[in-house]
Amino acid sequence: MVQVAHDTLLAGREAHEPQRGQEIHGLHVLAEVTANLAGESDVEELLQRFLSTLIRLSGASAGAVRVLSTDERHLRLVGAQGLPAEMLVRERIVPLSCGACGNAVVEDAVQQVGDMTDCAQRTHLAYFRQCDSMVVVPLRRGGRVLGVYNLYQTEPRPLRDDVCLLFRSISEHLAMALENARLTRENLRMALMNERQMVANEVHDSLAQTLAYMRMRLGLLEEALEGGSKQRALRYAGDVREALDESYASLRGLLGQFRDRMDPLGLMHAIRKIAQSFDSRTGIAMSLKEKIPDLRLNPDEEVQVFHIVQEALANVARHSGAKHVWLVMELCDTEYVITVEDDGRGAFELGAVPDLRHHFGVSIMRERAQCLGGRVEIGNRPEGGARVRLLFPVRPPKAFSGDDL
Q1: Does the predicted model carry a pTM greater than 0.90?
Q2: Fold of the CATH domain 2-185
Q3: Low-confidence winner among 152-161, 169-178, 216-225, 380-389 (lowest mean pLDDT)
Q4: Can you tell me whether residue 181 is helix, strand or coil?
Q5: How are beta strands 324-332 and 285-291 bridged, if at all?
């Protein structure tokens, strides 16, 4: 009697072992998906990699994974396993509203479809007539369709509730990866557009103005030549030559700036990198003093500050004849103050200096400072040398209330 009871208990335990093993395996899968989200660069490769796992968990014989197309009205095949080649060609693009896939997406639920007649009639593929059922796992996030998994079963195999729940968890994590990839692409597009706009602004503010000056001088040169005034012609020719030299220097400066772009790690990291290499690049020793405990700027503001500092340091390297330059970043009451000082010849008078590149560089710095709601001050140090100071207001912190909790 005891032996019979023991055998019955053992049989019950063995009957539950496959289910328990599957649950443990499912938890491992979910942990693996979560671990791969942060480091995965190719999301479609991630979807394909977990296709075989979903096939195994559902007991399917084949499967496919599809993602939303660019027109957002179709599903595009990105991976398949165990399907005939003819089906891969015909099912490369399917409408989002197509049959069981469309229903699973609309209802936002894992579904098992027992009648494959619609799929067989739509595609004229014999494969669907051999299938007993199909499991559809939708990938949705925030009410947005991102893709589906199709798992094809050739034998009757009901989908258990715990497997449906596991599929739901896996699909939410994979949908998160798809959504993050979409946002990353959008951010890259925005960054590219902003970069192009910045290039256009730089060219307009420097090269375009110098070329416009050259064009006016060429007109005066032609008039002088037609009038037989050699002295005037030589003067205008000299102006054109000088402007041409400035354009060339401006172009070289722009190329240097765009090779030395804003560091992705932020403003302070970018400025530290400039300070580390300034001496070796220019022969001028540089000292950096950071007196700002918390520099709270958005990315656009960081770019403006970075280019102002970069232009001020470029002017020191080109014009000052200095042996040492100091960059000080500090917080004074409600303003950030960033100062570039050198021990060179001293500041110039804008109305007197013929250096067009220098003049345009200062104009650009002041325009950038206006974008920050601030100003640029240029003058001489009492000890000798020049001082360029950027001052702009600290943005007040966001108001906090109990509703933000």
Answers
A1: no
A2: Beta-Lactamase (3.30.450)
A3: 169-178
A4: helix
A5: parallel
